[in-house]
């Protein structure tokens, strides 16, 4: 196992690149930690980043830990959408701290810039993150270090404080100048790529968080694909969730993500979508509900609809297939998930209820 001086939270965004490169330029051996979950992370880009920026990077999967955090309601709350940025940073820093001895590293680098983001990069929030993650002794924020209290690494002489930066605010001029100085020519686009800050994704995730007693990370991978249909009876969600492909690519993705206890629906004799039914512990998919789901699936196939008669749908689970005949139909039952305003309203109620407990 290679050893390093520092572990750097490496999202692939410009700040994480600059913070890592700055410490490398001071002669420190830096390993990038790229955190992945169904909500963020681009592990497929790691080899390219390594080549382009000359930073070795390892991928760390925090999917289930992150889902558990979301399901229990993040202690520091959500941002504008479903993004628990403060708790997210705390979680990543805690994990990085645990990895320090593994790589014989002595400190952690984070590319946060003071005042850059309203929720997670205010001075008081930076302190909360550092204290709650218990990384006071080992955390360095090289891009804004000159404006932050002196760290033990600077006090001990391990790091020359004069070489660190004092970037502040939302402007990017300082970052671009530093990029030039460090020879970073490929500047990534500013968008962070975290789905938790997108309303469309939040709509997809919300019913899973509120319906499953113990949501699993792979459910959110499914939520990232295709149409999300939840069954309703008299406007109440019954908990039956079906994910349906919108095109060939979605169908292929779904079939890769499916696990044996889930139902796979496919039309036997007509082109059309594939769908996955996700059972919730303790809630049955009765024959009636399976038929409803199959009819709904068939209704998304123009050729099956034009057929004008019943069509065959294959339902596979645990490797066993059964075939049922249904008329393409969507009279009630499986419907699109909530709109963003409905989701936000429910999120606020959840927040208030927890605050009162
Ligand atoms: S935007 Fe997403 S990845 Fe970034 S800190 Fe917030 S929750 Fe975490």
The SS-based structural class is alpha/beta
Bound molecules: iron/sulfur cluster
Helix content: 25-40%
**CA distance, first residue to last residue:** 47 Å
Please tell me the CATH architecture of the largest domain by its name.
3-Layer(aba) Sandwich
Report the biggest beta sheet as strand number plus sense, adding barrel if it closes.
Answer: 7 strands, antiparallel
| Gyration radius, rounded | 24 Å
Low-confidence stretches: none
Strand line-up in the sheet with most strands: 11-10-8-9-7-6-12
For CATH, the homologous superfamily of the largest domain is named as HUPs
As a percent range, the share of strand residues is 15-25%
Find the CATH topology of the largest domain. Rossmann fold
What's the CATH first level of the largest domain?
Answer: Alpha Beta
- Give the count of helical stretches: 13
Number-wise, the strands total: 12
* Helix and strand run: EHEHEHHEHEHHHHEEHEEHHEEEH
Report the mean per-residue pLDDT as an integer: 94
User: Into how many domains do the coordinates divide?
Assistant: 2
Overall shape: it is elongated
Describe this structure in words.
- There is one protein chain.
- With 357 residues, the chain is α/β, with parallel strands linked by helices.
- The protein has two domains: 6-193, HUPs (Rossmann fold, 3-Layer(aba) Sandwich), CATH 3.40.50; 198-340, no CATH class.
- It has helices spanning 14-25, 46-53, 63-71, 85-99, 123-132, 152-155, 173-182, 199-211, 217-223, 248-257, 287-299, 302-307, 340-356, and strands spanning 6-9, 30-36, 57-61, 107-109, 139-140, 227-233, 236-244, 263-267, 274-278, 311-317, 320-326, 334-336.
- The strands form two sheets. The chain has a seven-stranded antiparallel β-sheet. The chain has a five-stranded parallel β-sheet with strand order 3-2-1-4-5, with helices on both faces.
- The model has no long low-confidence stretch (mean pLDDT 94).
- The structure holds iron/sulfur cluster.
- Iron/sulfur cluster binds at residues 40, 83-85, 88-89, 120, 192, 194, 196-197.
């Amino acid at each position: 196992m290679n050893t390093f001086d520092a572990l750097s939270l490496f999202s692939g965004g410009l700040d994480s690149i600059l913070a890592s490169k700055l410490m490398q330029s001071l002669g420190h051996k830096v390993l990038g930690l790229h955190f992945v979950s169904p909500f963020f992370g681009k592990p497929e880009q790691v080899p390219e980043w390594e080549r382009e920026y000359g930073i070795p990077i390892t991928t760390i999967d925090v999917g289930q830990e992150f889902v558990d955090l979301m399901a229990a309601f993040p202690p520091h709350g959500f941002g504008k959408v479903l993004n628990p940025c403060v708790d997210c940073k705390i979680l990543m820093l805690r994990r990085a701290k645990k990895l320090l001895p593994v790589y014989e590293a002595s400190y952690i680098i984070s590319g946060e810039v003071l005042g850059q983001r309203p929720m997670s990069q205010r001075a008081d929030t930076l302190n909360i993150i550092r204290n709650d993650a218990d990384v006071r002794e080992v955390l360095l924020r090289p891009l804004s270090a000159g404006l932050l209290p002196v760290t033990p690494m600077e006090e001990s002489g391990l790091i020359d404080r004069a070489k660190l930066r004092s970037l502040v605010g939302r402007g990017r001029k300082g970052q671009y100048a530093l990029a030039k100085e460090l020879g970073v020519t490929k500047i990534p686009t500013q968008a962070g790529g975290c789905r938790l800050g997108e309303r469309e994704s939040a709509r997809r995730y919300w019913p899973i968080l509120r319906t499953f007693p113990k949501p699993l990370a792979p459910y959110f991978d499914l939520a990232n694909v295709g149409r999300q249909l939840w069954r309703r009876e008299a406007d109440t969600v019954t908990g039956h969730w079906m994910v349906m492909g919108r095109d060939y690519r979605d169908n292929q993705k779904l079939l890769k993500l499916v696990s044996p206890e889930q139902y796979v629906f496919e039309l036997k004799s007509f082109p059309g979508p594939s769908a996955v039914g996700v059972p919730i512990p303790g809630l049955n998919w009765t024959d009636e509900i399976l038929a409803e789901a199959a009819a709904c699936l068939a209704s998304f196939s123009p050729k099956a609809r034009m057929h004008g008669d019943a069509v065959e749908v294959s339902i596979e689970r645990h490797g066993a297939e059964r075939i049922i005949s249904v008329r393409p139909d969507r009279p009630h039952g499986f419907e699109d998930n909530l709109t963003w305003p409905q989701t936000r309203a429910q999120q606020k109620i959840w927040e208030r209820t927890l605050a009162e407990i």
